[in-house]
From TrEMBL:
Gene Ontology BP annotations: sphingoid catabolic process
Transmembrane segments: 22-42, 48-75, 82-104, 119-137
InterPro entries registered for this protein in UniProt: Mpo1-like (IPR009305)
Biological source species: Endozoicomonas elysicola
A cellular component annotation (GO) from this entry: membrane
Name of the molecule in the record: PRS2 protein
Keywords: Membrane, Transmembrane, Transmembrane helix
Phylogenetic placement of the source organism: Bacteria, Pseudomonadati, Pseudomonadota, Gammaproteobacteria, Oceanospirillales
Coiled coil residues, start to end: none
One Pfam family it belongs to: Mpo1-like
Length: 141
């Protein structure tokens, strides 16, 4: 299994452009929330199970980033709960708009999305955003 630094290095190769990075810092968390919301709309238990399974992958990479991801998932679940009957429609709309912007960002970047090479990069994106925040705050991960 790759280290977190290896994942970030590979992910970062297609995320060098300032505009693309900004788009990703907004859209990756939005997509994560929307996926939680879509699953939540059908079954909150399934959403919690999906988050728990994802956490197994994250804990293998970084304990500190995983703790932060627990907070991200908890906020996503709380927002999904708060949206009530509108969670599915809102989540689908967010999902579509955020992915459109993601592809615009990669068009600006001139490189294809990382997940075209390895689907695991879909899980790395949220950690990459948190890793950036950790680096800015000078927190090791």
């Amino acid at each position: 299994m790759k280290t977190i630094e290896q994942w970030f290095s590979e992910y970062g190769e297609s995320h060098q452009n300032k505009t693309n990075k900004l788009i990703h810092w907004i859209c990756v968390p939005s997509i994560l929330f929307s996926i939680v919301g879509i699953v939540w709309a059908f079954s909150p238990v399934a959403a919690w199970a999906l988050m728990a399974i994802t956490m197994l992958f994250y804990f293998k990479l970084s304990f500190k980033l995983s703790l932060a991801m627990i907070v991200v998932f908890a906020v996503s679940a709380a927002l999904s709960q708060a949206l009530g009957a509108y969670v599915l429609q809102a989540s689908i709309a967010i999902f579509i708009v955020a992915w459109i912007f993601q592809f615009i960002g990669h068009k600006v970047e001139g490189k294809k999305p990382s997940f075209f090479e390895d689907l695991q990069f879909l899980l790395i994106g949220p950690l990459w955003c948190l890793g950036f925040l950790f680096r800015k705050l000078k927190i090791s991960y």
